[in-house]
Design a protein that fits this description.
2 copies of one chain form a homodimer.
Chain A lengths: L6 H18 L4 E6 L2 H12 L5 E6 L2 H12 L3 E6 L8 H9 L6 E7 L1 E2 L4 E2 L2 H11 L2 E5 L18 E5 L10 E6 L1 H9 L9 H8 L10 H17 L1 H21 L3 E2 L11 E5 L5 H12 L4 E2 L9 E4 L6 H17 L8 H10 L3
Parallel strand pairs in A: 2-3, 2-4, 4-7, 7-8
Antiparallel strand pairs in A: 1-9, 5-6, 8-9, 10-11, 11-13, 12-13
Helix pairs in contact in A: 1-8, 2-3, 4-5, 9-11, 9-12, 10-11, 11-12
């Protein structure tokens, strides 16, 4: 460890923040908090809004529910606009909802770039377009989506974007990152939610002096610093391509086995995680065998999808060999569980994606 | 990394929580949040108190000021009972203040076990005695003090005790731990501070199922798990003794060099960090030379002590060889800065502590 109020840390902090701006495609401030992604979400809310404020959540899953819970915990007046799990938020429906708001009472619209619980990408560009017309703040949870597909913070006018260390940044959990546009800083001045730890103005005051407000998780800063060397060498376009390819490998492999994808629409299918809806087998039994006998951990369902789906993560440090292995193992385990599939068929479909065929 | 909603994590979480109870000397719940120590302090406040509540802060330094700031940020009515920096909170004065509160309006008394900024230990046992007579909740920031000297959470009736991963637990920053007594849980039921991330009831609900509310900083859990193996082998009494010995080495070494200790009273001198008040030399120049030429990082002053003191940390992974080296380096650098001291005199005094003389 090093002294986090010393000169070595100043250099690391500076380079890490510069790397974040690059990842976010922004000139806005990006600040880091010692927290999991949910702490970043809370930071976004308490720094830009006030109790009683009306906000709209375009809710497509479990993390949409989290926006609703955080906003309600702080006494905000939440319109919970729910879409079917497995589908993206429809920009037209969001636009209609905003048009109903003649008196411009809605102060912010909150949504996910990638909804981890269902494996669905929102069309952030289209959503931000309709929200900008209305004038509400655009607050995006990009914790699991950032770097897996394009996100242009400045070009799309995103006011607050939240990310976390443990996804495409490829390091352990424990850091939450939050960007603030000029409009967001103006909202900060008026925001009346109580705050100390999450106070982004206090944090910025320290960061401008090369420090952080409270003790930073130094080991994770070291990791993030190293991750940016890898990521920048690869370049944004290649990082996106890598994630898009892995997504296609998983989807084609799974479809070839006759399994049902929760996110049916290719255009909104997550570049971070794919959710699969089992037909005749128990997803929990599948996950247990995959873990115990093949050392491969698949995620289960969250919220109302608990026990109803399983999910294959394909972001960050996961690479194409692991995807081939995952589909190969999946074929074996499905057969073991009595759900007959042709061995190698899914793997072949994934290979064909790699061969561009 | 492992799946934090999987069976491997269940085992680690259970063992880590058990280790924390051992460290705290408590049967109370101890919960872990992904945060720095200040997040733990905020957790203590927002889960037991409500806006408008009167609280008393026994404030002996920069982290006492932090209690005041957090409480005020949440609209609490704070009595800021300030003691001179370098001194402990006088239990008699705290008792008098509480006696003035005839209508029992003070809901909680907040203070530090160890005030890092000045290197002073409070007499937690005596303070908790007088507070128990009054009936207010006892909320203790033990972030830098826990494990450096005795703290009997249950025997002394401490309602909320906050600690952090980066001090005597010997691992990097990023975890905040918070214990809750039965009285604290009753206060939680009535508390009206807004909360989601810090909501300790939600956290407990997850922990009872072997999970955490939000994504845990897994790498730090691994570290804490390993640290408990070392700490338990050593035993609480030996851990306290080790820290007491290092404290004496630093104090005797520094005194032998004719330097002034900020905490003059041996009984309240910190077992974690020692603050030294320079006479004829600049503490910042001393710190710079120590770091640049001797690779040894000393802390500076915080808050109103900035630029007026320097501090030698002697907790956690620091051992007696490093203390000997620190005093040896200090002697050289003082001479270089024109503050003549007899070479070896401080080292000899520290050695005599080890020889029990």
């Amino acid at each position: 460890m090093i002294n986090h109020r010393g000169s070595e840390f100043v250099v690391i902090l500076k380079e890490v923040l510069e790397g974040l701006k690059w990842s976010y495609q922004t000139m806005n401030d990006v600040l880091i908090f010692p927290a999991s992604g949910s702490g970043g979400m809370e930071t976004a809310v308490v720094n830009t809004l006030s109790p009683g404020d009306k906000v709209l959540v375009a809710n497509i899953g479990n993390f949409g529910d989290r926006w609703v819970k955080i906003c309600r915990a702080y006494g905000l007046n939440v319109i919970d606009l729910q879409f079917e799990w497995g589908k993206a938020a429809d920009p037209k429906i969001v636009a209609e909802k905003l048009k109903e708001d003649k008196n411009r009472e809605i102060k912010a619209v909150l949504f996910q770039q990638n909804e981890t619980s269902t494996g669905v990408l929102n069309d952030v560009k289209a959503l931000s377009g309709v929200i900008r017309e209305h004038g509400a703040l655009i607050i995006v949870d990009a914790v699991s989506g950032l770097l897996t597909t394009d996100l242009k913070t400045d070009e799309w006018g995103l006011d607050v974007v939240v990310s976390g260390s443990q996804k495409a940044f490829m390091i352990p959990p424990g850091l939450a990152m939050v960007s603030m546009s000029e409009r967001a800083w103006k909202a900060y001045e008026k925001s009346k939610c109580p705050k100390f730890y999450w106070d982004i103005g206090i944090m910025k005051g320290f960061v401008d002096k090369g420090q952080t407000h409270t003790t930073p998780p130094i080991s994770l800063y070291f990791g993030l610093h190293a991750a940016f060397k890898l990521l920048k060498d690869e370049g944004l376009e290649n990082i996106f391509k890598r994630h898009h390819t892995l997504r296609s490998m998983v989807r084609e492999g799974v479809k070839a086995l006759g399994l049902k994808l929760l996110a049916e629409d290719e255009a909104t299918a997550s570049t971070a995680v794919t959710a699969i809806v089992p037909s005749s087998f128990d997803p929990e039994a599948l996950r247990k065998t995959m873990r115990d006998e093949y050392g491969m951990v698949l995620a289960g369902g969250q919220g109302k999808m608990k026990g109803k789906i399983f999910r294959i993560g394909h972001l960050g440090y996961v690479d194409k060999s692991e995807i081939l292995a995952a589909i190969g193992n999946l074929e074996i385990v499905l057969n073991k569980l009595g759900h007959k599939v042709e061995l190698g068929k899914g793997v072949r479909a994934a290979q064909q994606v790699l061969l561009g065929g």
